Amino acid sequence: MTVGNTKTIEDPALQPPDLDALDLGDLSDDRVKALKDEIARRSMSLQALESLAQELPRREGDTEDSMLHTDIVSLGLSESGSASVSPSSTTTSTLDPKVRENHHKRDSNASKSSRDSMYDHAYINQFIQKGLSDSVGSNTSKVIAGLQNTIDTLRRELKDQNAKYIEAKKGRDALAKRCDNQNESMESLKHQNEMLNTMIQRKERQIQDVESKMAVQKSRAQTLEKEHADNEARMLDMEERTAAAENKYHQLQASADASADGYRRKEEYLRGEFKTLTDSISAVSAAQAEKHHKEEQWRQGIIDKLAKEEELRNQIRKHQVDFETLAAQREQKIQAMLAEFKKGIQGHGSTVDETVLKLEQLSRETTDALETLKKSQRELVKENDELRAKENS
């Protein structure tokens, strides 16, 4: 601060705080309150200087020393910077009633100000006293000019402090808004985290279910593999037993074919004999017919021939009985052969017996099937002959 002959008084306590160096995040409620107090303190100092500057031109007829001393007293400060006692009667008598009224107002304002504003008045008292010591012999206009410069400087500082306070408030509001956004983001992330935890728990339960199902499937697979191995072993056993049964079947089939061939030859022989007897009967019948014409003449001969005919009939009956006997004997032989075959293979177990029974049943079914085929063939031949006859007609 410059007063008088370019003398500068600097006090570190009066330097404004550097708001630019502060972090906006550090602006708490206490710091904002401190800034407001600083602005109020500077406003009080500015008002005191303005009132002092307004009263200086009115003090006509007073000496420069008495005016400056009166200003110091009007601020309520002693020369040492502490609060002063009541001013002397000689000093206050030099002021007019308006000045005294203003002095009383300033005294009341000074008594209501804070400790910081008192410190500003002490600062003003210091630089005024310094001005007195340096400006002995100078005129009042220089003092007024110095005070006006001080007022302008304080106004600029107050304006800067207000601007910085507004900027700090804006920064604080921005930080509060950012904090609210961060809180909302945190709530959203917390909700998403809860949802993800729920999904993870559900997935874990699904994985546990799948693992339990896999364990069951694995156990079933092992059981099926064991059953498959057992089935393969049984299949091999059945294949071996089936091969043995097929061999027995082929042997029995060969025996049955041989028996059937012998039966067929015997049947052909008996049919030939029967034909021969039939031819003989036919011849006898012809002879009887021929002899019948000569019945009257050959009665005795006819009687003899009738006896012969009766004899031949008895022979035919005998041959028929022989044919039936041979058929029964053939059947007995076949049964005997089967019985001997069964006795020969009884040592092989019940499986062979079952196989033999199946083979016998198969043989009968085969014979029935052959008869059915023959019958069908005869019917087809008959139908074919009928169709040919129809075509020829």
Q: Topology, please?
A:
Blueprint: E1 2-3, E2 7-8, H1 29-55, H2 64-74, H3 89-92, H4 97-112, H5 115-134, H6 140-292, H7 299-344, H8 350-392
Antiparallel strand pairs: 1-2
Q: Using DSSP, what is the number of strands?
A: 2
How much of the sequence lies in strands comes to: under 5%
Biggest sheet features: 2 strands, antiparallel
Structural class of the secondary elements? mainly alpha
Number of domains: 2
Q: Tally the helices: what do you get?
A: 8
Could you say which overall geometry the principal axes of the C-alpha atoms support? rod-shaped
Approximate helicity band? over 70%
Any overview of this molecule?
With 393 residues, the chain is mainly alpha-helical. Helices cover 81% and strands 1% of the residues. The longest helix is centred in the middle third of the chain and has 153 residues, at 140-292. The N and C termini lie far apart (158 Å). 10% of the residues are buried.
Short description:
With 393 residues, the protein is mainly alpha-helical.
Tag the structure with descriptive keywords.
single chain, 393 residues, mainly alpha, 2 domains, two-stranded antiparallel ribbon, 8 helices, disordered N terminus
